[in-house]
Amino acid sequence: MNFELTKEQEMTRKMVRDFANNVIAPRAVDIDRHAEFPKDIFDEMGRLGLLGIPFPEEYGGSGGDTVTYALAVEEIGRVCGSTGLSYAAAVSLGASPIYYFGTEEQKQEYLIPLTKGEGLASFGLTEPNAGSDAGGTKTRAELTGDHYVINGEKCWITNAEYARSITVTAVSGKREDGKNIISAFIIPKDTEGMKITSPYEKMGVRGSNTSEIILEDVKVPKENILGDPSKGFHQFLYTLDGGRISIAALAVGIAQASLDKALAYAKERKQFGQSISKFQAIQFKLADMAMEVELARNMVLKAAWLKDQKKDFTKESAYAKLFASETAFRSSNQAIQIHGGYGYMREYEVERFLRDAKLLEIGEGTSEIQRMVIARQLGC
Ligand SMILES: Cc1cc2nc3c(=O)[nH]c(=O)nc-3n(C[C@H](O)[C@H](O)[C@H](O)COP(=O)(O)OP(=O)(O)OC[C@H]3O[C@@H](n4cnc5c(N)ncnc54)[C@H](O)[C@@H]3O)c2cc1C
After folding, report:
1. Is 132 in the pocket of ligand 1 (CB under 6 A)?
2. CATH code of the domain containing 160
3. Which residues belong to any copy of the Acyl-CoA dehydrogenase/oxidase C-terminal domain (predicted)?
């Protein structure tokens, strides 16, 4: 078994690490404080090819793999959870479903501008009354002539205000057994009847754009249906499996940042005449954090590798998402503890890590849903 990264993977990681340290990190505090979506940073990431990492060159991508992409998400998440979340959502939820399931025409029209960094895309699944139970989608799409007319509402959709296209799920008919058929539709940004606002005041990932979408008689040509119309539900489950790897990678980044800050502070802070890193109680916290970060990273890379090998990765991506997000929460919580009162102050940044990490236990399937996915894979 080979645990080495390839030369290309190492090079991309270094490039993204430098970009994260030099360009994103100095802005991270303000992005959080002012809930400011860093549009210019995304433009720059587009120019560097970061938005196209896991897509083939023929579709404008960098021809990288999922492992490389996971390393990039971790590096960005290490310095800024908000930018990390919007990056992960743009690639895994915005562009990926068009790459997985789109027709050649859809890839030319909607995927290539995304991989080239000319815009972002969003994935609108969640509704006010259909969260974990995404099969309970109420949004409807009716075929009238050669158009679908879509009506409904989506909530908490990442990047929607800045997206050039949004893929939404909607009920498009009924199966023979009476169950709803859910399909996915690509809606270009300026389509009449689609209203996007960002009214939420969030606890964390404050600089990541989170939007509400109201769809009122939104007309899209029937060619805008994504993939097999009868398999929309399976398509979004597959999309979420892939997205979980990126959320897990983001969690590893936040957990690593928490460890780095806590270790540096523990060495520097003196109480009772010595640095607090000499106290076994603090050492044990740091040891646990380091071990969990390493385990979480291994799980992310294994799930990414399985996906790259075209092997089944549903269980492993759920393991990675569940363990890494809970690791990020525990590590950021311990980082605050190690900082004592200073950790409770905004200035020391670790409280931001905790606020950002919390989202990762909720988005793209809550921790409870991950445990259900794993249990189902065990045959329960
Ligand atoms: C910042 C942010 C960004 C987001 N971005 C997107 C996006 O880009 N696109 C998108 O489509 N969605 C997005 N979401 C929505 C997110 O995926 C949902 O919030 C998540 O799936 C949970 O749904 P819910 O919030 O409705 O919670 P609910 O489903 O109402 O769950 C509430 C609680 O009940 C538990 N629960 C529910 N069902 C079960 C069960 N069967 N067994 C045990 N426990 C259960 C849950 O685990 C949770 O603890 C985003 C959310 C946030 C906060």
Report:
1. yes
2. 2.40.110.10
3. 231-378
Cβ-in-10-Å burial (0-12, 13-18, 19+) of 290 comes to middle
Q: Residue 2 domain-assigned?
A: no
pLDDT score of 233: 83
In this prediction, residue 80 carries a pLDDT of 98
Q: What amino acid occupies position 213?
A: I
Tell which one of 362, 376, 380 to mutate to probe ligand 1, the residue whose CB is within 8 A of the most ligand atoms: 362
Q: Is 22 left (phi over 0), alpha (psi -120 to 50) or beta?
A: alpha
Q: Give the pLDDT confidence score for residue 59 in this predicted structure.
A: 98
Residue keyed to tokens 């815009």: 119
Averaged over successive runs of 10 residues, the pLDDT of the chain (380 residues) comes to 95 98 98 97 96 97 97 98 98 97 97 95 97 94 96 98 97 90 95 96 98 98 92 89 97 98 98 98 98 98 98 97 98 98 96 98 97 96
- Spatial separation of the C-alpha atoms in residues 86 and 78, rounded to whole Å: 14
Considering the domain architecture, whether residues 105 and 52 belong to the same structural domain is answered as: yes
Domain enclosing residue 253, as ranges? 233-378
Report which of 136, 163, 168, 164 is spatially closest to residue 150, judged by C-alpha positions.
168
Predicted TM-score (pTM) of this structure:
0.98
User: Which ranges in 89-150 belong to alpha helices (H)?
Assistant: 96-101, 104-106, 112-115
Does a structural domain hold residue 274?
A: yes
Could you tell me where the beta strands, DSSP code E, fall in 229-320? Answer: 270-271, 274-275
Per-residue confidence (pLDDT) for residue 98, from 0 to 100: 97
CATH number of the domain where residue 319 is located: 1.20.140.10
Helix (H, G, I), strand (E, B) or coil at 167: strand
Q: Measured from the CB, is residue 127 less than 6 Å from ligand 1?
A: no
**259 and 366: one domain?**
yes
Determine contact, residues 182/233, Cβ cutoff 8 Å. yes
Which CATH number does the domain housing residue 78 bear?
1.10.540.10
Say if 299 falls within a structural domain: yes
Ligand 1 atom closest to 366 (CA): 47
Q: Which two tokens stand for residue 34?
A: 């002012």
Whether residue 364 lies inside any domain: the answer is yes
d(CA 160, CA 213): 8
